[in-house]
Specification:
The chain is an alpha+beta fold and about 150 residues long. Helix content is about 15%, strand content about 55%. It is elongated and about 55 Å long.
């Protein structure tokens, strides 16, 4: 019981480990949401994320989950291991695909909503101890709504 309370207090104080490690969360911005292909059967939409690491150390990105809702296409949900590392003070682009069965309806100009989270692994011994104790890795969210280009 005491161990669970101690872990809970540590997780509350750490808040993603930035307090003790001096590491800030990576910045994630949705740069564009595009309709890239449309056929009679369906459509492909791509979401471009601009990732920025404001830190002096590289940050491993572990997992990305997201949903893309398009009217009238429906909702596409996906989660995948990111398998990438943001270099220190670096930026990267990441393109997330989404596919929709449209039944011949055009998605050109359709309204969309994108929501997602990206899990990352801050460096440090304290973060490793928290992870080993079952405390989840921190994540940063991203969201945007608009009309498909």
């Amino acid at each position: 019981m005491m161990r669970v309370m101690l872990i809970g207090v540590m997780a509350f104080l750490v808040g993603g480990c930035s307090v003790f490690s001096g590491v800030s969360a990576p910045l994630v911005k949705i740069d564009a949401v595009r309709l890239v292909e449309q056929t009679e059967q369906g459509a492909r939409v791509e979401v471009d994320l601009l990732l920025e690491n404001p830190n002096d150390v590289a940050i491993p990105l572990k997992y990305t989950s997201y949903s893309v809702r398009v009217a009238p296409g429906g909702t596409y949900r996906y989660g995948d291991e990111s398998n990438r590392t943001l270099p220190a003070k670096g930026t990267q682009m990441l393109t997330l695909p989404a596919a929709f069965a449209t039944g011949g309806a055009s998605l050109s100009g359709a309204r969309f909503k994108v929501d997602g989270d990206m899990t990352y692994e801050p460096p440090g011994v304290l973060r490793k101890a928290l992870t080993d104790s079952g405390i989840p890795l921190p994540s940063v969210g991203f969201s945007r709504a608009g009309q498909l280009q």
